[in-house]
Amino acid sequence: MRLSRVDVSSTSVLSQRRWMSSESMNNVPFETNEAMTKVLEELDACRETGKWRQALKLLDRVDKDEALPALDPAMYERAIASCARMGKVEVLPGLLNNMLVDDLTPTSATIDFIIQAYLAKEHWGLIVQLASEATSMGVQLSPAAFNAIMEACGQVKDADSTMSIMTQLSEAGVQLSTDHYAASIRAAGMSRRPDTAMALFVQMEERDGLKGDSETFSQLIRAQTLTGNLEQALQSFASVAQRRLSLEEPIYTSTIDSLVSNGKFWQATCLFEQMLESGEKHPSVFCLGRAMLAYTGANRSQHAWACWKKIVEINEPNPVAMKYNKMLQGLTHAKDTQLAVEVFTHIQKLFNPTEIHQGAYTTAIRAYGRLGDTQKAVDLFDEYVDSCKETRRVSRYVGIYLALFNALSRDTVRDPALNTRDAKRAWRIMSQNVPVVLPPAYASLAGVFASSGEMKTLEELINHAERSWGATAEEIEEPEFDEDGNEVEAVAVFDGEDMDLGSDNDVLLFNGVISGLSKARDDQTANIEAYLQMMRTRGLPITDSIVRATTDACIRFENWKLLRKLMKMLDVDTLKNAEICAGDTVSKLLEVGNWGLGREWLIFCHRNGLHPPIRRKMELLREMVEQKSKEWRIAYALANETMSFRRLVQNNVDSVADAAEVCLNADHLDCVTKLFDAVAGHSSLRFFRNHQRQVQAGRDAMQPLKLNAEPVIVPLRMYKMAILALLRQSRSAGPGDDEWRMAKSERICRQMLEVHGKNLDGEALSMAISIKATAGDDDDVGALYETMRALNLKPNTYAQNAAIIAFSRQRRTDQVLAIRDELSADRNDNGEVKTVESNVAKSLLLSLALAHENDAFRDAVENLPGCTLDMAMNVMVSTNRAKDAIDYFDESASTEMFDALIDQLCKSDNPVLAATLVVKQARLKGLASVHPNRVKRVTNELIEKGDLVEAEKLLQLYLDGTNGLSLKQTPPYFQQHTLEMLLFIYGEFGHFNAMRAVFEKELLAFPLEVAHYEAAMEYCADSRDELAGAVASLKLFENLRTHGFVRPSGYSYLLTLQSCLRLERLEPSNASAVRSTGQVILADVQEHGFHKAVAAELAKQVASAIKQTAVTNQKVIRRINKKGEAENVGVIKPVELARIALFCHRHGTPMNAQLATDLLKLHQHLPAMISNELAFIKRSLEEGLGVVAAPGSRANSIPTKRVVKVKKTITSKTKKTPVVGLKTGPKRPRSKSYEAAIRAATDARWGAVLEPIVGDDE
């Protein structure tokens, strides 16, 4: 049989980890019948039980028995799963080969099971081989299998297989993601093949259309850095910066480290700066250290110091000595010696001398030698030698000795004898530890002797060196270092003797020792801690007396740290009287005022089920109240212990009240109500119980009780605290919780009035007023407040606020004025009126405003501190008295109040008052204090209401610049709004000179568009005085063409030609050979290639004229369109359109047949001569004759209308509105400029023609 090729002789069963396949075993995509189902169930049972041999035999039986269904992938899948589960990897290749022989394709789950088995055995090569075969067959891989395959490719360093697998997956139509490519690039990097990694990255972007993300770039850079291709890695980082991706800090740090190690300091600094620019705000200490070395290598000392200061500022927790030692050794050859000294000083603060590597000492000694501080260098050498006496041997590295010798040789301050002595001592130490002394050591020492003037010693050293150089050096054993950079030393370990003197005797012994130490005059808590640790190590119990002695010593010498450790050492089950012992400790801590540690001990007791008795509970609670403590846990515990007695006295209840006050200070309101309920329900409070029975029996609640002893009652302050806690809780609770809390507070308040009716104070009655006010009972509020006034009790602010509101609702203005007088009479120690609480001030002002008590209102604002101007104006606005609010407005009003008042005035449809307020604010605080949006809103409202004069005055403030702000200092959007609004206002009033001045503004923050010129020229064309409007329009066009770079539109040219027509400057005169202004403008059109735009606009205007003539009384809205196109405006009359079209036709811009046809549609509005000429031109164009002059026509044969000064018939003129469609104001009276137009000089240049024309004002 074919399955006999599978080796099943092994008896070893190995289990392995498995992951779930992406394909369910129970939902196989094959057709099944009853026999198939039975076979699959048997295979599933084999897989679950691990009977892999039985599964193989079942496959063999299915293969041979024709009655059974044929083998399919599902059967193989379950058989392979059985073998893989038991770790039988040797049979898996045979099974897979049988599938291929049977022409069956493995399922994804089958590949998963095989990879699981290989992965458990770490058969990386087999995984790669299997993956290559599976992908070539088109088998879908699960994510787990894919990652395992990529890991295997990396382990065997097979980058070619990685590339082929990814290519096969892509060709098979698998939807690859950036995660797939990130794993494959990582595998290529593990294989040390950066070229393959780059090829995969290119395939991802070019072939699969995926954009590289942060992870793929990180893996690509890691692959390039790992193999030393730093230039390629930097190119990848450049791509990251261009794409604005954000990489993790470790990939930057590793690359910077590689660059520094390879001497590429400048590139490392650039990469570090790119990391900071990408958004990394908190680089690690190691990253900053490598950046510091990069900056020092690049001779950028200032930046290196900045990195070091950042390292110190971070204050890294749990620093590692190796990191800082490496950081300092990198500064060995740096020019900034002071930086090396600073780093070593910081290392000394962080680590013990035994943790500092000798290389760090070497660098520091060399740095101090360069700085001339020889004594410090010698001290560091001695410190290093002393640190080696017990924990490590002196280094055999000669560098530290050479550094010291160099420092001594540079010295110019110390006594030469000292330098000689130190040099000889260092030489002796070096000779004892360094096997072979090399020539550099002799040279360094010779320099020391020479600089010290020890000539005789120098000669002896030279002779000794010459003799030693001829000897054969022994082999030097390299020192070994551990992971922290310390030398590994041979340490002799002696086994100590175990002490077994008996548990009882040991405990007694340690008890006596610790007791004696606790009574010592000096601090022996360190020894006590050592003995406690020894007891714990030996498993000895800590007794009650030891705890007391330790507590006494720790409290005497304030060793709170040991007391915290004692809690961890203590086993309460071993104490004879744990509660008394713990209570003694807690009591002593509270007596010395260490509330925090006392709280920790209390929590420790409660966790262990202890209820420690605490001494001086009442005194402690009183002290906590006097100190305004917030230690509510301690107070609550003390109160509960106080109430644990069967019978309470009044002092106990007062102590509970003290505890409630501490809880109230800590804002734990639930604890306050719990304490009140507990103390009020205690059996000792017989007055409360008997009184409750009286109320239930219907008897008089105020009838005195016959008691043998003074009854215990709840203090008044505890009633008030309980009510206050419930009221505060009601504010933050939901609607359901608020109801029962208010009911409970009302019940407690009634009890308080009944119990303490004769001893009530102002605060108690104020709380009662607050409760009644919450319930909405204005009558009771007023009655209670009048009672307080009669009893001469001072209310709190809540009661005053509630009383003002209640009296105002009852229209009792006299009572409101009385409260105003009480507030005015309330003065402090300096005789000044006290500041009124804000809610009281608001209620008072609102009540006075509603009662129209204007004098009292103004008096309150001026004389009562707390009644601010902002409040007054808010009240005025809320009561629809906006004009009064503006009258009250002065320089003391806040910006928020100004904004709110503007908002209210605009909403109230009264923009004129809003404008008045803006002008007043500008005069008081300057125009800069007014936000442009406020002015924009006000001007829009003014234009909407037709108040153009007020809008112009308001906007004129910015043009004048006399209020501390000019228009150029405002935002661009506001400049645009201002100029467009002014264009509209000037156009409606006919102020042409002012309109032209708008376009002469320089350095505007927004660009002027041709639409602005078109709108202005439309206003000129639509003016009642046509001649003055035409002159102004030509000047505007001159400004358009001679100032700036605004591209003229076809519509602007038509408006200009219209002005020329009205001034009789369109056609040349018979008596002059000089070109007319119209000809000059048309030549400008042809010169700059605008003839198509003019022709298109002319056709558009004609079409618009046809529509306008068909629709009468059409409302025209002029808008500033940014595209430079006119939208259904009719400022050019049909006859003017026809004359302009004929003028263009005669002078180089011929019309087409369609335009002539459209113009003829307006024949009712055209003279007969113009209509005939248009008809002739139309026939000529239709017959293909081109531009032919009409019979008898000349350039000026068509008589133009004589321009004379006549008044227009007052008809319903088309209303012009700005963007928002606003109303117009009164029109400007007609100007007389006919003579000015006649005086226009005849010149070929149209700009010069316009110069002599003066405006109306001139």
TrEMBL record:
<dbReference type="Pfam" id="PF01535">
    <property type="entry name" value="PPR"/>
</dbReference>
<keyword id="KW-0677">Repeat</keyword>
<dbReference type="InterPro" id="IPR011990">
    <property type="entry name" value="TPR-like_helical_dom_sf"/>
</dbReference>
<dbReference type="InterPro" id="IPR002885">
    <property type="entry name" value="PPR_rpt"/>
</dbReference>
<protein>
    <submittedName>
        <fullName>Pentatricopeptide repeat-containing protein</fullName>
    </submittedName>
</protein>
